[in-house]
Specification:
The complex is a heterodimer of chains A (293) and B (424). By secondary structure, chain A is mostly helical. Helix content of chain A is 75%, strand content 0%. Chain A has one domain: MetI-like (MetI-like fold, Orthogonal Bundle). Chain B is an alpha/beta fold and 424 residues long. The chains are: A mainly alpha (293), B alpha/beta (424).
Chain lengths: 293, 424
């Protein structure tokens, strides 16, 4: 009885959100997994259990291979791009510039724009038309007499071009993360290293870098899960285009255009496990670290 | 005091949790409200032209049905992609509108299979509509011998657009066959011009269906969608090879059809194969004159064939206001209604007895073709007439692989397999 008095009120207070979360998140994750084990098609719910058939077929599906390949390229370009760019910005900011507050906001702004709007602007910027139709980046490249068409529909690397706007949108955020990390490095440590005769590069490499590792980890996990989920940006730039399609788009196509709900659910489950694979170890690691404190 | 506050908090907490659980238990039965004078019509007509057309149609509906409230449940988005998702959710939740828009044809197959649509053959019989529409259209509208939709307008897919002045300048006349296009392409290449302009994947599929139609003829083309023509047959594979050669002599972009058509206007390419909604764009946004500024002909090999697509309205099962939904369908099928709607939307009326004087320029010639008894009517793939959603989506998927590996035989085999799998 005394126990309930102690934790009961707290539990009751959080219960609305627990119930909502349980119902709208975890219940539906389970439901989706269940659908992925059936042959459900169209509006007719088919409860016949077919085991892992959907997954087997998916792993043999050439379109799925193509989309996973695209996702891999997208992820690498997007994560490397925004990490490098974000880190560079943060290091420059850390050195102290005038009007740092204003600059920080400017770099963060792209994240405030929805991916749909970003996509529409970048579709125009990345247009690979020639002659009178030349627009966007090719206008600028044209000044140097170059014409880029690696991002057009014929290119195998078109999906890398779509990672550009994603990186553009998120690098400001990565900068903010790193900047917070850099500011968290105590000045005394740097001073001590300098007194011991370390050059500025060595200070960054031996003192600042190890302390930035946790920040790098969180940035990596955040970017990776955004990358796996990205749907709206790609849809806005090139809908239903095999050159730029990722599993997230394939899921939408299968489920909502073709009515293959079972297949769509299987893709969703695979994406879910992909994200968990990244997020769970990270959460476990941080929780252990916090408990250890 | 503090004690009471805590109790109150607990009560609020418990109350809110109960509320969160409640809605999930409430019954989700659609309600019939025959006494309410109201009709809710669901469509994706909200763009320029379509919005005005729908407004004219509703104004006439209100005049004929005084006192009935018209609720316009339009969801924006071209060719109804967004609208279909919203509608699917409403149908699954047993909250159907009184009538909803569909592309005429097999796009309705899933809804019928799920028992969502009323068979409205009785409306056709009571109003004598069967003789008012071309028999080819009635045939394409029927699924399992029953009719589930009322067509409002007819669009034509197999058209090839060009600028007459430019063709003259390059010394060519509109091609009659795809082989001729390929011959012209060589001559055009010397002048730095491509033969065709194609854009986003769906415009490529739009071209593909018309190449198949032109190369195979109507009988074999129809057979592609009902299993009578073997996709793996030598003639189909040959037509696919022709399509491949055509892509090789095209400007391939990633845009929707408007910028793709602009390349023809700009002289980068000679032709663009697109449906007749292009006429509205050329005449409206581009302010070009028919026959001088732009011209159009049936896509190669399809003279005398009308590859159609149509917007239609349906009667869902459990429509809350069935009487007025029927009144709305009658409005859609009426000569008056169709003649109000179509000149604004830029399409021709489905009815054979429509008033010809209301249609100008391109539409006048289109209507003449449509009402011509010898015109053969076939249905479009990309626009949902001849394939159900599942088959169409599988074709789109196979096409994605086809454009990358350019293997005609493999594509044909994949589509053939998809037909078997999805027609079950």
């Amino acid at each position: 009885m005394r126990g309930i008095r102690k934790w009961g009120p707290g539990l009751l207070l959080v219960s609305p959100s627990l119930v909502a979360l349980g119902l709208f998140v975890y219940f539906f994750i389970g439901w989706n997994a269940k659908v992925s084990l059936t042959e459900s098609r169209g509006y007719v719910i088919d409860d016949r259990f077919v085991g892992l058939q959907q997954y087997k077929r998916l792993f043999a599906d050439e379109t799925f291979h193509n989309d996973v390949r695209n996702l891999a390229i997208f992820t690498v370009v997007f994560i490397c791009g925004s990490l490098l760019f974000g880190l560079a910005l943060a290091l420059l900011m850390d050195k102290g510039v005038r009007g740092e507050n204003a600059l920080r906001s400017i770099y963060l702004f792209p994240m405030a724009i929805s991916f749909i709007a970003t996509g529409i602007v970048w579709r125009w910027l990345l247009n690979s038309d020639t002659g009178a139709g030349t627009t966007g980046l090719n206008d600028v490249l044209g000044l140097a007499g170059i014409h880029s068409d690696w991002h057009n529909a014929q290119s195998k690397w078109a999906v890398a071009a779509i990672a550009l706007p994603a990186g553009w949108a998120l690098s400001g955020y990565v900068m903010a993360l790193f900047l917070a990390g850099l500011r968290g490095v105590p000045e005394e440590l740097r001073e001590a290293a300098r007194v011991d005769g370390a050059s500025e590069t060595k200070v960054y490499w031996h003192v600042v870098r190890p302390l930035l590792l946790p920040v790098l980890m969180s940035a990596l996990v955040i970017l990776a899960h955004i990358s796996l989920k990205t749907f709206d940006l790609i849809w806005a730039i090139a809908p239903l285009d095999p050159r730029t399609e990722t599993p997230a788009l394939l899921m939408y196509r299968e489920a909502f255009r073709g009515g293959f709900y079972g297949r769509g659910a299987a893709i969703a489950t695979i994406l879910f496990f992909g994200i968990s694979l990244l997020a769970v170890p990270y959460i476990w690691y941080t929780m252990r670290k916090e408990r250890g404190r | 005091m503090a004690e009471i506050n805590r109790r109150q908090l607990l009560a609020i907490g418990a109350g809110v949790s109960a509320l969160a659980v409640l809605p999930s238990c409430s019954p989700s039965q659609s309600e019939q409200k025959p006494d309410e004078k109201k009709v809710e019509v669901f469509s994706w007509w909200s763009g320029p032209g379509e919005q005005e057309g729908l407004d004219a149609l509703t104004a006439n509906f209100k005049k004929n049905n005084p006192g009935v409230e018209f609720v316009n449940a339009a969801v924006a988005g071209g060719s109804g992609t967004q609208a279909r998702s919203v509608l699917a959710a409403r149908l699954q939740g047993n909250q159907p509108p009184d009538s909803y828009q569909l592309h005429a044809g097999l796009e309705a197959a899933d809804d019928i299979k799920a028992n969502r649509l009323e068979d409205i053959t009785y409306l056709y019989e009571a109003n004598g509509w069967k003789s008012k529409f071309p028999s080819g259209l009635i045939e394409k509208l029927s699924i399992g011998g029953k009719i589930y939709a009322v067509p409002v307008n007819i669009h034509r897919s197999n058209l090839m657009w060009f600028v007459p002045g430019k063709l003259q300048e390059w010394g060519i006349t509109p091609a009659k066959t795809w082989a001729e296009v390929l011959t012209q392409a060589t001559a055009l290449a010397a002048k730095g011009v491509k033969a065709l302009s194609v854009g986003a994947p769906w415009t490529q599929l739009h071209l593909l269906e018309n190449v198949l139609l032109g190369e195979l003829g109507t009988a074999k083309y129809n057979g592609l969608w009902d299993g009578k023509t073997d996709w793996k047959g030598a003639d189909v594979v040959k037509a696919l090879d022709t399509f491949k050669s055509l892509l090789a002599v095209s400007v391939v972009g990633t845009d929707d059809w408007q910028p793709t058509l602009d390349k023809v206007l700009g002289g980068q390419a000679a032709y663009h194969v697109m449906g007749d909604w292009a006429a509205g764009y050329l005449q409206g946004a581009k302010a070009l004159k028919y026959k001088t500024g732009y011209d159009v002909t049936a896509s190669p090999g399809t003279a005398g064939v009308y590859n159609f697509l149509a917007d239609s309205f349906t009667l869902p099962k459990g429509a809350p206001h069935k009487v007025y939904a029927e009144a709305w369908l009658k409005e859609c099928a009426s000569v008056e209604g169709q003649d109000l709607f179509n000149p604004l939307k830029g399409s021709v009326p489905a009815r054979l007895d429509a008033d010809k004087s209301k249609y100008k320029d391109y539409l006048a010639s289109a209507l003449q073709d449509w009402q011509n008894q010898s015109t053969v009517v076939v249905g479009s793939l990309v626009h949902g007439v001849v394939a159900n959603n599942a088959f169409k989506s599988e074709i789109e998927k196979a096409y994605g692989i086809f454009v990358q590996d350019k293997d005609s035989a493999k594509f044909a085999a994949a589509v053939s397999k998809a037909y078997t799998d999805t027609s079950k």
